[in-house]
Write a structure and sequence with these properties.
Layout (H helix, E strand, L loop, with lengths): L4 H12 L5 E2 H7 L5 H16 L3 E4 L3 E4 L5 E8 L5 E4 L7 E3 L12 E8 L10 E9 L4 E8 L2 H7 L3 E5 L8 E4 L10 E9 L8 E12 L5 H9 L8 H7 L15 E2 L6 E4 L8 E7 L5 E8 L10 H9 L3 E2 L4 E2 L4 H7 L7 E11 L5 E12 L2 E4 H8 L3 H6 L4 H21 L9 E5 L5 E6 L4 H24 L5 E3 L5 H13 L13 H10 L6 H10 L5 E3 L23 H13 L5 H8 L2 H31 L6 E10 L2 E6 L4 E5 L8 E4 L4 E4 L5 E3 L3 E10 L4 E9 L6 H7 L27 H11 L42
Helix pairs in contact: 1-3, 2-3, 5-18, 11-12
Length: 812
């Protein structure tokens, strides 16, 4: 059974509003199906949905989703192992789809499912469902590597070859390639249009034709281009945008300055990364006699140039954000704007929007003004130079003596603002971020942890202050606006986090559904300086909801503020451009009717921006994973220290000091059967009571690197020995056995799998001996009958990545 587009959209709408009913007139307005012809189409679609049992009529002409219908519609997320999950309601757990129950669904498809089982609180079994039909396909094209058929294969199959699609989910699909498109050579990375989707007769098989050859897989830079095409990120601007950009001058017109505050004689500077070219924020600061500060945050007025509905605006809307990859930036705006006319380059007049704030010694904004301005930046500073100036570098302080006092005042104000945010409960997740250093051909040369010192942090503080101030102004005026929101954490996730925190001896105050950020902050304070501080912060971060854009001012949980938007980066983020456009609009003092007409698009635009942000993040992560795999490819057999970053039912991920992660598969742990305790993020040995948990120190050997799959496999060499307490042992009881059959090896020689190396009496004896005088680190799979001295690390096989990442002695 296939539904029309209108029927599909109606069904989706009813599924999303299961507890509500709607009149046909309301639906006509919602779907813009007014007028006699359109209204008849709508009524016909409703009648059909009622006829097939998807919706039902209640009361006086109201429609709702059929209440006795156990079919739901949601988004399918595939897994490489053949199963999947369906997200129907963001407030409820996903439905699990076992292998064989996913039908012909592909990752991201909108599908209709039949519920087989709801969550059973008594047994702990999760909900389960099966795909009934695909409602809407998520993909109409794929990117991948082409393999050409020889002449005989072409004649036998009718195809010129096949494409191995690059899918983020890892879902195993193959595309047979039609001869109607391009005919590339083997090894070409290609973009292909899907002409046939998987069917019951041909599961796992697509048919399509090649529409574009991106390049050969061995060419430098093609790997990154492949990722851009994989995520649908445009790498070039369309012709109408290129034509429009020609109309812009290289310098601002003096006439454009009229009506703006002229700040060109003020001492204003930019502070950014050394390689940044899109400078969209500048800062000025003066200290008042009473100790308060006058902070000016001056943001490039992109909305002056990018008019709503223009070709450049439409393209920026579709892109949503600039994408920052290891060796390139894919800009939201053409370079003439992003790096030129809108970039706040030094010694050049630039149009800006200023948020001027008076901030007292407690970090409170006591007065502010938001206005159109023109500036001329005095200095283009880098974070590195600012940090060295603040650290006392004599030469730099001499070179920049004019701004040294202002920089010192900026550092002082930053501390005040940071203290204020922490006092109100803002959460500070100081997570590690990788900086991947590549050569001219894009090959990774080193991976280091990106440094965030005072320079980076103070600019962040000033941007946060401006974003809050702008949001607060529009909230007070009750004017339609786009906000950056971060909602209250999901209750279920918070309950799991509370259980984990409790296992570390850190009880949380409050109720999981209403817990305040201040309470979470207090829990982090309790473990400050302890070994598992970063572990608790990491799990807490994973328990948070994703931040997104919305027209509803729902506040920002992580920042502990009710007022927040994105105002400070309009060159690289479309929501900031919308905010600037609204500032311009409200300065004209519009009527209520004009406000409604101008802002009706905001909800859809906010949703689009959130989706594009997630797409960019996914592409950036994929690129990092690729470059990390490339970097580790020549280090097979080498050993490195690390810590367990994540524990799952199939193994554990170990993070090295340079942020590279690899998997130690559970079937590689041959010394015992292990039970996975999800609430504690822990593996517990059934026989040995050995524990593997997040944060635990280990030494690994790089075993395998698959660049094409972005996967790194580690082998456990040594680990910080820990034993399960009674509570963990109790939780482990009844859990499913995981891993390989344990090898009892009392002689130091491996025995054949399946053969017992000792009687149960002997095992008890060996276990007792092993617990006496056992070293801090116990080698994985070592003999249990006697303590073993620490294994010496083979120094000739230890890689030296950089000063920030070198082998350390075990146990320290």
């Amino acid at each position: 059974m296939s539904l029309s587009k209108l029927e599909n959209n109606l069904l989706l709408f009813f599924q999303e509003h299961r507890d509500k009913s709607f009149k046909a007139n309301d639906l006509a307005s919602q779907f813009n199906y007014q007028g006699s012809k359109n209204y008849k189409k709508l009524v016909k679609a409703l009648a059909f949905l009622e006829h097939i049992g998807e919706i039902e009529m209640v009361g006086q002409g109201n429609f709702r989703v059929a209440q006795n219908n156990n079919k739901l519609v949601g988004t399918f997320r595939a897994n490489a192992k053949g199963f999947g999950f369906i997200s129907v309601d963001p407030e409820k757990p996903d439905y699990f789809l076992p292998p064989g129950k996913v039908g012909q669904a592909m990752d991201g498809d909108t599908v209709e499912i039949r519920v087989l089982r709801e969550v059973d609180p008594q047994t702990g079994k999760g909900s389960e469902a099966e795909v009934v039909r695909v409602v809407e396909r998520a993909m109409d094209q794929v990117v991948g590597e082409f393999v050409a058929f020889n002449q005989d294969q072409r004649q036998d199959t009718g195809y010129i070859g096949y494409l191995i699609p690059r899918l983020d989910s890892g879902q195993s699909l193959r595309m047979m390639v039609d001869s109607k498109g391009l005919h590339p050579v083997t090894g070409s990375i290609c973009l292909a249009e899907i002409t046939q989707y998987p069917s019951p007769d041909n599961p796992g098989t697509l048919v399509g034709l090649i529409t574009k050859e991106i390049g050969h897989k061995d060419q430098p830079g093609v790997d990154i281009l492949e990722i851009l095409y994989q995520f649908g990120i445009p790498n070039e601007f369309p012709e109408d945008v290129l034509e429009q950009i020609k109309e812009f001058p290289d310098v601002i017109d003096p006439a454009q300055v009229q009506g703006r505050h002229d700040l060109r004689d003020q001492l204003i500077i930019t502070i950014d990364g050394a390689s940044a070219k899109d400078l969209d924020d500048a800062i000025s600061l003066e200290k008042n006699s009473d100790g308060s500060y006058e902070l000016g945050v001056h943001i490039a007025d992109v909305s002056h140039y990018v008019q709503k509905g223009s070709p450049i605006d439409q393209e920026a809307y579709q892109r949503g954000t600039s994408v920052y990859l290891t060796d390139r930036v894919v800009p939201m705006l053409p370079q003439k704007l992003s790096n030129g006319l809108c970039s706040l380059n030094p010694k050049e007049d630039r149009l800006t929007i200023t948020c001027q704030m008076t901030i007292n010694t407690q970090g409170k904004v006591t007065a502010f003004d938001i206005y159109l301005s023109v500036i001329n930046s005095s200095y283009r500073m880098t974070y590195r130079d600012v940090n060295e100036i603040l650290a006392g570098d004599a030469k730099l302080r001499q070179d920049y003596q004019e701004i040294v006092p202002m920089l010192e005042d900026m550092a002082a104000l930053h501390k005040i603002l940071e203290k204020m945010r922490l006092k109100r409960g803002a959460l500070n997740f100081d997570t590690k971020e990788a900086e991947i250093i590549v050569d001219e051909e894009g090959q990774p040369q080193d991976i280091v942890v990106r440094q965030r010192q005072t320079g980076e942090r103070m600019i962040e503080s000033f941007m946060l202050a401006a974003n809050e101030t702008v949001a607060g102004y529009f909230m007070a005026k009750q004017l339609p606006m786009v906000y950056r929101i971060h909602e209250q954490p999901d209750e279920e996730k918070m309950l799991r986090f509370a259980e984990f925190a409790s296992s570390l001896g850190v009880p949380l105050g409050g109720h999981a559904a209403t817990i305040k950020p201040k309470q979470l902050q207090e829990s982090l304070k309790k473990v400050q300086g302890q070994d598992f501080e970063s572990v608790l912060a990491m799990i807490m971060l994973r328990s948070m909801q994703q931040a997104k854009y919305s027209i509803e001012p729902l506040g920002h949980y992580g920042l502990a503020t009710k007022e927040y938007t994105h105002f400070t980066s309009p060159i690289r983020r479309y929501p900031d451009l919308m905010v600037h456009r609204l500032i311009h609009f409200y300065l004209t003092r519009p009527s209520k009717k004009e406000i409604y007409q101008e802002t009706s698009y905001l909800a859809g635009a906010a949703d689009q921006a959130s989706k594009m942000e997630r797409r960019a993040v996914d592409a950036e992560r994929e690129t990092d994973a690729l470059k990390k795999a490339e970097f580790m490819a020549d280090k097979i057999g080498q050993q490195f220290p690390g810590h367990i970053a994540s524990v799952t039912s199939f193994g554990m991920f170990v993070e090295l000091a340079n942020t590279v992660e690899g998997l130690i598969s559970l079937d590689k742990l041959s010394d015992d059967y292990y039970q996975f305790i999800p609430s504690h993020y822990m593996l517990v040995g059934e026989r040995t009571s050995n524990v593997f948990k997040i944060g635990q120190k280990v030494v690994i050997e790089v075993e395998k690197v698959d660049i094409s799959q972005r996967q790194i496999d580690f082998k456990l060499v040594d680990y910080e020995s820990q034993k399960a307490d009674q509570a963990a042992l109790d939780l482990a009881q009844g859990q499913k056995r995981l891993g390989r059959r344990p090898k009892q090896n009392t002689s130091g020689n491996h025995h054949k799998p399946g053969k017992s190396a000792a009687t149960s009496k002997g095992r008890a004896k060996n276990k007792a001996k092993a617990n006496q005088g056992k070293p801090k680190f116990a080698k994985s799979g070592q003999a249990k009958g006697k303590p073993k001295t620490k294994q010496k690390v083979r120094k000739n096989k230890t890689a030296k990545f950089s000063k920030s990442f070198k082998m350390t002695k075990r146990g320290k």
